[in-house]
Amino acid sequence: MILHKTFQIEPLPSLYSHRHLIQVWGSCFADEMYKYLLEGGYRVFPSPFGTMYNPLSIASGIASVLDDTQADPSLFTERDGNYYSYMHHSRISGESMEALASVINERSAQNGIIWKHTRLLVATWGTAYVYYKDDVVVNNCHKQPEKLFKRRLISVEEIVAVWDALLQKLWERFPNLRVVLTVSPIRHYRDGIHANTLSKATLQLAIEQLRLRYPERISYFPSYEIVLDELRDYRFYAEDMVHPSPLAISYIMEKAKAFMLDPESFSFAEEWRKAYKLAKHTPSEKGKEAHQREVYMLFESLRTERDTLYPPLTTRP
């Protein structure tokens, strides 16, 4: 008996392994994908801006790294004794404006080096609703008064224009870079159910225009459709009934694995996952030091094996 509908997803024309550098930018779902790839030992890197929800913020962040743009203190704010950037997630903070600027500039500089060797960009868009402060798109409001911001639903045309310019810049420097775009399966019900539908539809239409414009370089991974159509049951959601449950995340990641990763890398990725499970194990206080030493040696061995089996591609993409 078939209890749910499944769909065939055409894999990427070129699949990726532990040799390739992968970057994952975007919403909470991007965080899940980064974690999945990291625990499989893949050479994956997150956005230096932290979690980002709308496509304009993601594009702005990537462009600022490519242009080596320095942190702008006019976009900093203070809360509870710490300083934050409106362009970055709240995990990125500093005890002073100078400390925050230093952290931001260092993270961007490191990411600029990573771009030189990146072969795959995965960008997850969460919402088409954007916040502006003084006509500048911001990524995070950091619990500041609502009156400081303006909020609106951006158009398909705006997204396509911004991303078309970004993609041209990326491919001019890194002609072999492939881009995977996806829409986060996490619904934004705070906007209202209809507003969420309009937002997700706007993202879908923008992605489709970009995909049709660059069919050889852009692919779409249907994470949103997987949750809505293959996992259309609340047992696949967390307690908030909005975020996918761990089981749903695992299901989506298995689909993503078949979509973009080389099957020859799967067995080695499982070795890494076993190591991460061991690292999460909580030993007794007496055995703590021995456990830490065992975990350290295991990861050192895996890194050496990875460099031997899958030497990194460090030539210009």
Strand order of the largest sheet: 2-1-6-10-11
Shape descriptor reads globular
Number of domains: 2
Report the β-strand fraction as a percent range: 15-25%
Q: Considering DSSP H and I runs of 4 or more, what fraction of the residues is helical?
A: 40-55%
What's the CATH class label of the largest domain?
Alpha Beta
- Report on the biggest sheet: 5 strands, parallel
CATH superfamily of the largest domain: SGNH hydrolase
H/I helix tally? 9
Number-wise, the strands total: 11
Cα Rg: 20 Å
CATH topology of the largest domain: Rossmann fold
Distance between the termini: 47 Å
Helix and strand sequence? EHEHEEEHEEEEHEHEHHHH
Overall pLDDT level: 93
Q: How would you describe this structure to a colleague?
A:
Helix content is 45%, strand content 15%. The strands form 3 sheets. Strands 2-1-6-10-11 form a 5-stranded parallel sheet, with helices on both faces. Strands 3-4-5 form a 3-stranded antiparallel sheet, covered by helices on one side. Helix 2 (55-66) packs parallel to helix 4 (156-173), helix 4 (156-173) crosses helix 5 and helix 8 runs antiparallel to helix 9. With 317 residues, the protein is of the alpha/beta class. Helix 1 (28-39) links the parallel strand 1 and strand 2. The protein has 2 domains: 21-73 and 107-261, Rossmann fold (3-Layer(aba) Sandwich); 262-316. The mean pLDDT is 93. It starts with 20 loop residues before the first strand and ends in an 8-residue tail after the last helix. It has helices spanning 28-39, 55-66, 97-115, 156-173, 193-213, 223-230, 246-260, 266-280, 288-309; strands at 21-26, 43-46, 76-79, 82-85, 93-94, 118-125, 129-133, 136-138, 150-153, 178-183, 218-220.
